[in-house]
User: Fold this.
Amino acid sequence: MIENGFSYLALLMILSASIVYTQERSQHKIFEYLPAIVILYFVVMLLSTMGLWQKTSSITLTYTAVKSNLLPAMIFLMLLLADMREILKLGKKMILTFFLASLSIALGFIAMFALFHTYFDANAWKAIYGSEWLVDGWYCQYGSHTRGIGHTR
Assistant:
């Protein structure tokens, strides 16, 4: 079981490098349907569920530092690869479908929150902003340390 931040970060880096290496060097069909980032998220969630690392203060500090500093930079770098001309070539129907799907997810979230808000923590409404790291960054900047639905730091 991993209990310190360095080992935790090293495992995540080795895991991500091995998944990207496998994608680049192999002809597995799975990579045609699932991008490497999705597989990485799934594997990390699976390892966390299996208890491969313990939530210690060192791991929590490492996780917070990586999430707060590297994640926005990595998302920005991924967006640099986005070619708007290629996206526009998908056509109006595909772009409309994307926005309607996004809207339906947002409305579904709002409807479920309205139905079940009595079961959630008082600060659960903050999750409506879309992603936990964005909400964490916003509220940690202004002194509140709440996170997501139903739990606090």
User: Anything to note?
Assistant: The two ends are 22 Å apart (CA to CA). The first helix runs from residue 5 to 25. DSSP finds seven helices and two strands in the chain. The longest strand covers residues 146-147.
